[in-house]
């Protein structure tokens, strides 16, 4: 019996958008993953906090992931007392999942900053690093790093929030259920 292969896709998901879903599909296919865990971040020390609450971000993720049994939302980083460090999340997943092969799914921009993360060597020991190639960011050939080819998708959560604020159509940027949720809850006034 082969070990389970699990992709870990973290982010604020404020809101989840079509590029996030395309990344998960590309990783699922390229790495032959059994599952992709979407892990919304809680309070972090290294970026501005999310505008939508954790509850709203989880609800949008659940709506956006409907219909794909290989996707799951993992809320551990939203729990009180969560450190917000990737290394701690990976350690907890290892304790729960035993021998599963974990793949940390990150963009080339984040990979370029990996050395500045909290305990980066331990992160690399706990999970294989799988990097989505991005235009304008040159990835060095390194052992143990999986490259995930995918076309560039110029979608950003900040653009979606601005469009929502102006009452513009979001249908090409987020799944329809997510667009409806944003409008119904007036998440980005």
Verbal overview:
This protein is α/β, with parallel strands linked by helices. The protein is 36% helix and 17% strand. The protein has 7 helices and 6 strands; from the N terminus they run E-H-E-H-E-H-E-H-H-E-E-H-H. Helix 2 links the parallel strand 2 and strand 3. Helix 2 (54-65) packs antiparallel against helix 7 (176-185) and helix 3 (86-97) packs parallel to helix 5. The longest helix has 14 residues, at 18-31. The chain is globular, with a radius of gyration of 16 Å.
- Strand content range: 15-25%
Helix percent reads 25-40%
Structural class: alpha/beta
Total helical elements: 7
Mean pLDDT: 92
User: How many strand elements?
Assistant: 6
Low-confidence stretches: none
Gap between N and C termini, in Å?
51 Å
Order of helices and strands: EHEHEHEHHEEHH
Compute the CA-based radius of gyration: 16 Å
Overall geometric form:
globular
Major sheet, described briefly?
A: 6 strands, parallel
Tell me the strand order in the biggest sheet.
3-2-1-4-5-6
């Amino acid at each position: 019996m082969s070990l389970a292969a699990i992709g870990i896709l973290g982010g604020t998901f404020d809101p989840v958008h079509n590029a996030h879903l395309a990344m998960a599909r590309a990783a699922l296919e390229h790495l032959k993953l059994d599952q992709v865990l979407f892990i919304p971040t809680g309070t972090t020390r290294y970026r501005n906090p999310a505008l939508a609450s954790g509850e709203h971000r989880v609800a949008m993720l659940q709506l956006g992931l409907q219909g794909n049994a290989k996707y799951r939302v993992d809320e551990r980083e939203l729990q009180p007392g969560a450190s917000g460090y990737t290394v701690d999340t990976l350690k907890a997943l290892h304790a729960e999942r035993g021998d599963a092969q974990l793949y940390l799914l990150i963009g080339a921009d984040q990979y370029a900053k990996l050395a500045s993360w909290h305990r980066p060597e331990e992160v690399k020991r706990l999970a294989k690093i799988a990097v989505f190639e991005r235009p304008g960011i040159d990835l060095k050939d390194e052992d143990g790093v999986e490259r995930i080819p995918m076309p560039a998708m110029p979608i950003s959560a900040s653009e979606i929030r601005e469009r929502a604020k102006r009452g513009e159509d979001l249908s090409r940027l987020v799944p329809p259920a997510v667009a409806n949720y944003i409008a119904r809850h007036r998440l980005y006034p």
